[in-house]
Amino acid sequence: MLESEVSIGRKVLKKIPGILLGIFAFTLLVYSSFINVNGSNEVRRLIAPPAYIQHISVGYKEVIADSLWIRAIQDFDYCEQEVAKRVCKNNSWLYRMLDAVTDLSPGFRMPYAVGGLALTIIISDIDGATKFLEKGVRAYPTDWPILYRAAYHHLYETKDKSRAAELLIKAGNNGAPPWVYSLAGRLYSDAGYLDLAEKLLQQMVDQKLEDQFVNRLRDKINAIKAEQSNKASQ
User: Fold this and answer.
1) Which among 97, 104, 103, 2 is positioned nearest to 116, based on CA atoms?
2) Contact assessment for residue 72 and residue 98, using Cβ atoms and an 8 Å cutoff
3) CB atoms < 10 A from the CB of 228, how many?
4) Sequence-separated (6 or more) residues with CB below 8 Å from residue 132
5) Please, what is the average pLDDT of the chain?
6) How far apart are the C-alpha atoms of 115 and 61, rounded to whole Å?
7) Cβ contacts of residue 11 below 8 Å, gap of 6+?
8) Would you give the DSSP letter of residue 80?
9) pLDDT tens string 158-210
10) pLDDT at 202
11) Among 136, 165, 54, CA closest to 103
């Protein structure tokens, strides 16, 4: 009888970490958002995980990373504070969520491939996108779609043409279509801006990414065309 009770006790003890993890994940998901009502205005606030989360999740990093990723994709377009029209403040909630996911699970490719696009195209967190896309390049130095998307960001958002060209050449060396080499050589012209953006748009359409990605990039492409048209008419 005593041995049976001890055996049951050991089984319960083994389940405690999993139970605690479930409680933690559920609590994080529930409290990741709340509504603050101030008169007639409703302000939605999303809470990112603490920076030290990887140090308190030993043994359950992959599970927590999956939970945070599922939470992040529900609000790819969330910006807690716009600093200009369609430009989010640096180090946004989405950036901190994606950074935590990839700290917990460094080999998780999807956040780098899709989350980086959300940062640069949908909410335009320029600093956050730069850091996260470069983190993706370090994690996947031979993954040409990630390299190509980082190149777009550096050309269009940070205006770093040399870094964009370098990333395009790396993409070409790792399986990207041959035209990336000629595109790299044209980045110092206005046509290069438009070509890179249009080819990224086609890539997103071919991969059937959600409309919010495609429509937002189309808006940016139209802005490039309008700017070029204005320059030509002057």
Assistant:
1) 97
2) yes
3) 14
4) 95, 98, 99, 102, 112, 115, 116, 119
5) 80
6) 19
7) none
8) S
9) 999 889 999 999 999 999 988 888 788 777 666 566 777 788 788 878 877 77
10) 85
11) 54
Classify residue 174 by its DSSP letter: T
Residues 6+ apart with CB under 8 A from 219: none
Phi-psi region of 87 (alpha: psi -120 to 50; beta: other; left: phi over 0): beta
Report all structural domains of the chain as residue ranges with CATH numbers, in order of start.
Answer: 48-233 (1.25.40.10)
CA angle 15, 17, 21 (to 5 degrees): 115
Give the position of tokens 């030290």.
52
Give the tokens for residue 133: 């896309």
Residue ranges of the chain with per-residue pLDDT less than 50: 1-16, 19, 23, 26, 30-31, 34-41
Pick the closest to residue 155 from 122, 120, 181 (CA basis). 120
Token look-up 């990887």 returns 54
Identity at 134, one-letter amino acid code: E
Beta carbons of 165 and 150 less than 8 angstroms apart: no
Task: Give me the residues paired with residue 37 across strands.
Answer: 42
Separation of alpha carbons 124 and 81, rounded Å: 11
